[in-house]
Amino acid sequence: MRVVLNIIWLLLAGVWMAIGYTIAAIVCFLLIITIPFGIASLRIARFALWPFGRTAVRRPDAGVGSVIGNVIWLVFCGWWLALGHIVTGVLLCITIIGIPLGIANFKMIPISLLPLGREIVRA
């Protein structure tokens, strides 16, 4: 079932979300000081491609740098990314077929809010 949901997700939303996060990562890599945000954006892009069967967990070795980076991320882009996932998730949950895709969008909210100090693991 995960494979089918991942393929549907990939065709309807995953590719576009991954492209958007990848473009944001490239911009972050061009601005040298924002490279950690670019790495986080690539992590989210990979998660956006195949969200079913994966989950985001906190890394126990994340330190103060990830907390500071998460605050900066939250202020500049995390809140509107999370808001976009909320709106898209609610709209997808209107239809019965879209409910699993909406839930996948809701699952992406924590990592879009605070991506530093997290990793994507198989569920």
Which labels suit this protein?
123 residues; two-stranded antiparallel sheet; single chain; 5 helices; globular; mainly alpha
In helices, the fraction of residues equals over 70%
Task: Kindly provide the radius of gyration, computed on alpha-carbon positions and rounded to a whole number of angstroms.
Answer: 14 Å
Q: Which H/E pattern describes the elements? A: HHEHHHE
Unreliable spans are none
The mean pLDDT is 90
Instruction: Give the CA-based shape.
Output: globular
Largest sheet: 2 strands, antiparallel
β-strand amount: 5-15%
Which strand order do you get reading across the main beta sheet? Answer: 1-2
Count of β-strands: 2
Distance, first to last CA: 14 Å
What's the tally of helices?
5
- By secondary-structure content and strand pairing, the structural class works out as mainly alpha
- The count of domains is 1
Describe the structure in your own words.
The protein has helices at 2-30, 35-49, 64-92, 99-107, 109-113, and strands spanning 54-58, 118-122. The protein is mainly α. The protein has one domain. A two-stranded antiparallel sheet has the order 1-2. It is globular, with a radius of gyration of 14 Å. The mean pLDDT is 90.
